[in-house]
TrEMBL record:
It comes from the Bacteria. This is Methylmalonyl-CoA mutase. GO terms for molecular function: cobalamin binding; intramolecular transferase activity. InterPro entries: Cbl-dep_enz_cat, MeMalonylCoA_mutase_a/b_cat. Residues 138-378 form the Methylmalonyl-CoA mutase alpha/beta chain catalytic domain. It comes from Chryseobacterium luteum. Transmembrane segments: none annotated.
Length: 386
């Protein structure tokens, strides 16, 4: 790239904006503490191209009999007989207890063994799951944290801290038995960078134990930015979230129903077919790291990785995830960020069409009605206006 492109660009913008102080005007605020430049001409330190575990991204549907012939991967909440040559993501601990996979079966657990309310690991459940012949036995679920309003570095720091707790109890060999359930929000490039950053810091943690592991990522669409009375926009938002996850190299993707408080056979089918369109029309489910080399994405990936790793170290020095959970510190940190985020929605800094932009109702609830600093719970931004 020519060395004079940047100055020429700056001069043009100064002329257009009629000011010498262009960077204060072009600066874009974000709640993640990530520095975003208006123009990128290089990346200081290229990041490693980390592969995903699966060759092709699993496109996961909630099980329905009508989909059985056409869908390869299902989430199961109840037992279904004779599901052969399928990838099965088990979402019910009672069901997991009754499953005895055959050698050729592909079973994955989406069951988190952490009891967030008591601040403990359910040891009996963990041992039962580890005894199963699953491809991935233990789920580290941080989708709740995203839906509760946690910052990106909080989500990833918590994921690493929970991983460390498991490795300390069950041995570092558990690292290649984990599946990470991560909710992908609406900040398109940041969310791509989030998954890429998580691969980097998980790989870094695995090296501390003498391994060179890449995390298995099960990415699902967020509930945080969805609205009850805005189905069409929900569909658009979740499609972009799926694209973020696929481009970042998620191993499996799942679209939550775009009808927030109800479900129909038709809505379940449409939610799944969002993935089909992206995979087979855009062909973005086969890349390991499609955004590698993008100056912008590389830069924010590095920043997110550094912030998340620093938070993980801070948590470990303070006693670890479970100890901080018992003290209420984790809950308070997530609460503080979630409330600040909700204020941005209330003030219109975060725009949701049909909710705070061109609203369909004049209902408004207070932040105190929605959030509690003592509890990690999912809250949708739109609940304030519903």
């Amino acid at each position: 790239m020519s060395a004079d492109i940047l100055p020429n660009w700056e001069n043009l913008v100064k002329k257009q904006l009629k000011t010498e102080d262009i960077y204060s005007i072009l600066k874009k605020e974000n709640l993640e503490g990530i520095h975003v430049k208006p123009f990128y001409s290089e990346v200081q330190k290229p990041l490693a191209n980390l592969p995903k575990v699966e060759e092709n991204t699993h496109l996961v549907a909630r099980y329905h009999e009508s989909l059985e012939e056409d869908v390869f991967a299902f989430i199961l909440d109840h037992n279904v007989e004779n599901l052969e040559q399928k990838a099965i993501f088990v979402n019910n601990k009672d069901l997991a207890g009754h499953i005895s996979p055959k050698e050729e079966d592909q079973y994955f657990s989406l069951i988190d063994v952490f009891d967030e309310n008591q601040g403990i690991i359910d040891d009996q459940l963990a041992k039962e799951l580890l005894s199963k012949d699953f491809r991935r036995n233990i789920c580290v679920d941080i989708s709740l944290h995203q839906n509760a309003g946690a910052a990106i570095d909080q989500q990833l720091g918590i994921a690493l801290a929970k991983t460390k707790e498991l490795a300390e109890v069950y041995g570092p060999e558990i690292l290649n038995k984990l599946i990470f359930r991560i909710a992908v929000g609406g900040n398109y490039f940041f969310e791509t960078a989030k998954l890429r950053a998580f691969k980097i810091i998980f790989n870094q943690l695995s090296k501390e134990y003498g391994f060179n592991e890449t995390p298995y990522i099960f990415a699902e669409t967020s509930l945080r930015n969805k609205a009850v009375a805005d189905n069409e926009n929900n569909l658009i938002r979740s499609t972009l979230e799926l694209a973020s996850a696929m481009i970042a190299g998620a191993d499996a993707v799942f679209s939550n129903n775009y009808l927030v408080n109800r479900s129909t056979d038709n809505s379940e089918e449409i939610s799944f077919k969002q993935q089909i369109v992206l995979a087979y029309e855009s062909i973005i489910n086969v890349f390991e790291d499609a955004s590698n080399g993008s100056y912008y994405v590389e830069d924010i990936t590095r920043q997110i990785a550094e912030k998340s790793w620093a938070l993980f170290i801070e948590m470990e020095e303070a006693g670890g995830y479970l100890e901080l959970l018992k003290q209420g510190i984790v809950q308070k940190k997530i609460y503080d960020h979630a409330v600040e985020e909700q204020k941005w929605v209330e003030e219109g800094k975060i725009k949701l069409i049909g909710v705070n932009l061109y609203p369909k109702s004049d209902v408004k609830r207070s932040i105190d009605d929605l959030y509690s600093e003592k509890e990690i719970k999912a809250v949708r931004w739109a609940e304030m206006f519903e």
